[in-house]
Write a structure and sequence with these properties.
By secondary structure, the chain is α/β, with parallel strands linked by helices. The protein has six helices and five strands. It catalyses: Endonucleolytic cleavage at a junction such as a reciprocal single-stranded crossover between two homologous DNA duplexes (Holliday junction).
């Protein structure tokens, strides 16, 4: 399960992995704009919805985007609380979690840590063969959550689909290389005048 935390809109995504095959089960948002400015009500909504998703899909792990450093301290605190509540929901069901920095997620999915939300969504559509979404801007938080889930999949050494390489795959494909000895050729050194 991937989560892109937010206090107005929180993205979530669930993927199923079988070998190198990745199937998207769902990706959407929890929209809390209509809940007003009461932060406690929003946090409860996040917790409740996370539990509903966990109970429905039974994920093995939670991958969540770490809050990015911002100028507004109050916004950072609220975002951190939203992230903490999502993590607490997972932990209440004994689901381990891992955090990824936004730049690491973008790097894993697009090859650039400075990619825009639109570039991330475009790459996900290509990589996972997702249908185009007519109102894509509404779902950028959902595709961000999907990118967090996919990043976690890649970080576990499953990045063959993304064109990357893993040591595990290299060693499996080249068993003789593990114990190969290296030889060095001695060269004579020339004396300089």
């Amino acid at each position: 399960m991937g989560v892109d935390p937010g206090t107005q809109i929180m993205g979530y995504a669930l993927i199923e992995v079988r070998g190198q095959r990745v199937d998207v089960l769902c990706y959407d948002v929890i929209n809390m704009k209509a809940l007003g400015s009461n932060h406690a009500v929003k946090l409860k909504r996040i917790f409740d919805r996370m539990l509903e998703l966990i109970d429905e899909y039974l994920p093995d792990e939670l991958a969540i985007e770490a809050p990015f450093f911002g100028v507004n301290v109050q916004s950072m605190l609220k975002l951190g609380r939203a992230q903490g509540v999502a993590i607490a929901a997972a932990l209440s069901r004994q689901i381990p979690y891992v955090e990824y920095a936004p730049t690491k997620v973008k790097q894993a999915v697009t090859g650039s840590g400075a990619a825009t939300k639109e570039q991330v969504a475009h790459m996900l559509r290509q990589t996972l063969k997702l249908p185009p979404i007519a109102e894509a801007s509404k779902f950028l938080d959902a595709t961000d959550a999907l990118s967090v889930a996919l990043c976690h999949h890649y970080q576990k050494g499953n990045n063959v689909q993304a064109g990357g390489k893993s040591w595990g795959k290299f060693l499996a494909d080249n068993p003789g290389r593990l114990n190969a000895t290296t030889t060095t050729k001695k060269t004579s050194a020339k004396k300089l005048p």
